[in-house]
Amino acid sequence: MPHAASPGSTARAHRHAPRRIPLGRALAIGAGILAVLVLIDVLAPTLFPKALPDRAQDGLTLSLSVLIEALPWVFVGVVLSIVVQVWLPSDAVQRWLPRSAWARRAVLSLLGMFVPVCECGNVPFARGLMMRGLAPAEALTFLIAAPIVNPIVILTTHAAFGWDGGILVARLVGGYVIANLIGWVYSRHRDPQALLTARFVETCEHVAHEPGSPTRRSLVQFLVELRAVMPALVIGSALAGAVQVLVPRDVLLAIGSNPVLSILAMVALAMTVAICSNVDAFFALSFASTFSSGAIIAFLLVGPLVDVKMLALLRTTFTARVLAGLVGIVVLSACAIGIGVNVFG
């Protein structure tokens, strides 16, 4: 992506960007979802050990815990984004990366080892990299790899599992392979600008022409990034809390002994609980006695990359079609790796 989007690229982004849902329609959808949940609560009360008001309180508590856990990393990511956008020379990022497309993505896959930020903070940081010239496919490669090759994640995964079952190695290698697969897939897109939302392209133009001293531009960009990611973070945290109290976990645990269904169950769990990748290994450890090693690995691969909170954050930058593709590639790849570990491990 160029440093400053041209008017033509902005127009293309507008053409490809999905329409926003009107407020009335959004309220109608929300009311419909609420009605379905109430019907489920009335017609199938045996699924849940608690009444709806109790679960609503639990959902609020879980949502706040996810939000509080993610907030510090988001602020760190925004600060790193400002450093890249405002304080680094305009050609610094390009100068440090190899010229070959494959080599660039391979290097970006390892960048997370030097930027120990949770996946929530990686999104604003990647936005800053794109404003400095990184292509969307290259930014996606970084975003998918960084939450797994992060040194804190490596240490916590080792602390939880050690070298048992090859879980640590499978997580690192699997994350690296999935990231580069996604980077290669989207690098072949005919119109890279079409991968981005119209609002993000407009933000690129705004940042490129922002007047004033570096300090003033830093403050302005800090507000711009917070306005972009904070609503998504709040929505994602709320969804994570709601899903956790509306999906009966006993159903997931009941199928933990099946080598294939256990993987699918842990994938579903990973997408809903939205735990920070820095500590998710200890959460997964509690399931190690019930679920197979392949299911644990699938959980550790899917969670940091495409849980509901991460998808909400990614939606600030990438179109819904891109997000659907990411979910498909990550889930299928994680399931394949998990089944391979169960069969050959």
Q: Gist?
A:
With 345 residues, the chain is an all-alpha fold.
Describe the 3D structure.
This protein is an all-alpha fold and 345 residues long. Helix content is 74%, strand content 0%. Helix 5 (101-110) runs parallel beside helix 7. The model is unreliable at 1-23 (pLDDT under 50).
Topology, please?
Layout: H1 7-16, H2 23-43, H3 52-87, H4 92-96, H5 101-110, H6 119-131, H7 136-149, H8 151-161, H9 167-187, H10 198-208, H11 214-246, H12 249-254, H13 261-273, H14 280-285, H15 293-306, H16 308-314, H17 320-344
- Please provide the ordered H/E string of secondary-structure elements: HHHHHHHHHHHHHHHHH
Percent range of helical residues: over 70%
Strand content: under 5%
Poorly predicted runs are: 1-23
Overall geometric form: globular
- Total of helices: 17
Largest sheet: none
Tally of strands: 0
Instruction: Calculate the mean pLDDT score and round it.
Output: 77
Structural class: mainly alpha
End-to-end span in angstroms?
42 Å
Radius of gyration: 20 Å
From the structure above, extract its key features.
disordered N terminus, globular
